[in-house]
Write a structure and sequence with these properties.
120 residues; 1 helix; globular; seven-stranded antiparallel β-sheet; mainly beta
């Protein structure tokens, strides 16, 4: 559970019944097919070796990605195809995962060629 007070800049998360303070590292706006996404990058345990975690949150739609900054593991939103925001969320995920400015160490080069989603 995430507890956000964006007006006062207070961000907390409850993980395994323990409350952690989250640091706002970046705020970025994305526009996809006319939809606006306000994305916050919140960091848990900032500077802790083997414990720092980045949480990427859309202020209207919720948690998009939670990833370890040490290990190559993450929890990624899997939008349902019947969701009216499906195309927007998939495109947002692609933009986020390939944005080196906000997503450090983005998706590594692969033998699979990724094609940018077509946005109309």
């Amino acid at each position: 559970m995430l507890l956000l007070d964006t007006i006062n800049g207070i961000y907390k998360g409850v993980f395994n019944n323990d409350t952690a303070t989250l640091d706002l590292e970046t705020e970025k706006n994305f526009i996809v097919n006319g939809q606006s996404f306000r994305l916050l990058k919140l960091v848990q345990d900032k500077g802790v070796t083997d414990g720092e975690v980045s949480h990427f949150l859309d202020t209207e739609r919720g948690l998009i990605i939670s990833r370890s900054n040490t290990w190559r593991i993450a929890k990624v939103l899997d939008p349902q195809k019947d969701n009216s925001d499906y195309i927007g969320l998939i495109t947002l995920l692609y933009q986020l995962l390939t944005d080196e400015e906000i997503f450090k160490n983005p998706v590594p080069d692969s033998s699979i060629k990724l094609t940018r989603p077509r946005v109309e």
